[in-house]
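Collaborator request log, item 7. Partner lab (contact: R.S.) asked for a structural prediction of Tryptophan synthase alpha chain to inform their binding assays.
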Amino acid sequence: MKNGRLLSSGKARNISNLAQEILEKRKRKSILLMAHQIVGYPDFETNYEMIRLFHECGVDLVELQLPFSEPIADGPLFLKANQKALERGTTIEQCLDFAQKVTRDFPLFCIFMTYYNILLQFGVKQFVETAGSIGIRGLIVPDAFPEESDEYFAACKQEHVDPILVVTPYTPDTRMEYLANKTEGLLYCAARKGVTGAPTSFGDATTDFLLRCRQYSSTPIGVGFGIQHPDDVRYLVNKSDIAIVGSTLLNVLEAEGTTGVREFLLSLRPE
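Returned to partner:
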């Protein structure tokens, strides 16, 4: 640790353009923010308004989740949102068109979150190629395991789209080192085991987990699952490069509308 900063001691390796750009932004901010949207819920117009707010309120990265019928990493709130988006007839093609509009209109790092079945249905190589062509910088696919997804990782490498992998506090050291050397762009550090939406108690156990992540990762690290309050973000300053906010944003939107979302986002900035 140096000046409160948990330094990486991971194996030196070349990092992607996205990782380099994230680290460059980190020189100007104590921590970056990544905000989440389920595309098509409640509708594309609200999605666009939310992303406009993200940009205005200093969000740095946007995680665009493509709706899926069996989102295994998601809790009840996101499960309902996925189901509602699909019931409205939201298609992957519509999501791709929307993402292209977002990458064209806003200078944000845009990342897709989805599940491997979506890629298989679309065609793995075609999906990754399309994502790259519309400006998507990375993909979070929790059920795409490096040992079993050669086509996916090869396509990501060819199209310069970063495969972003996930670790948890329960990931063994050997597995964490392996995943940290396979991830590109950033390492997604889920602050606890389980699904999205539940609160997380940030404390010594979180610090120990992030020290392990730093030990093995040469890429920036982002922390998600359970960030609900400004204090959570402040806690992560000097421990993580990115604070990832998801379920709380949707809760605020449904309870207080976009005005509440703006106030919440502005409250998260530790500067």
